[in-house]
Amino acid sequence: xxxxxxxxxxxxxxxxxxLSHAAIPRFKMVSAETIGSIFIKVFxxxxxxxxxxxYRTGYGxxxxxxxxxxxxxxxxxxxxxxxxxxxxxxxIIYTGVQLLTFGFGTTKHKYELSDTxxxxxxxxxxxxxxGTALHYWHGxxxxxxxxxxxxxxxxxxxxxxxxxxxxxxxxxxSVLAFIHYTKYA
Length: 185
Hints:
Structural class: mainly alpha
Helix content: 55-70%
Strand content: under 5%
Mean pLDDT: 80
Number of strands: 2
Low-confidence stretches: 1-10, 17-21
Protein name: MARVEL domain-containing protein
Radius of gyration: 24 Å
Keywords: Membrane, Transmembrane, Transmembrane helix
């Protein structure tokens, strides 16, 4: 942030002639898009942490997973779990780094298109993982008694819903990032 000082020497009438009077700094206000983007990023990180906790401990303290396979044995797909883990961990790191760049107060990130691209990719990835979890856990039946409602099913549906909500937040953040890009580029 650059500070501009306006000083006036009252005896000679020339601006900037001396610093005998107090210098008055002029600060530039933060844009509404920046404030909105910071709030959305904080909310995305909080939801991401909750998703990671449910993902890891949602099955009665054991690994819940997102599912991803629709077969007779109801086994979870390792490929879907690898992609989901990558989305959860990768985007919490990315969003945390973006929050740090906003925290340092630089405006260099506003001139780059990378935030918009990553948010669009995040939108598709979060919605895909959430849709997979919702599809798997909606049709899930417990091992015994053919119960329709189980705690792991409820946790899986909550996991999928939070992923879709996070995808919507990434979409909103991509719009704000694009506004930053077009405004400052």
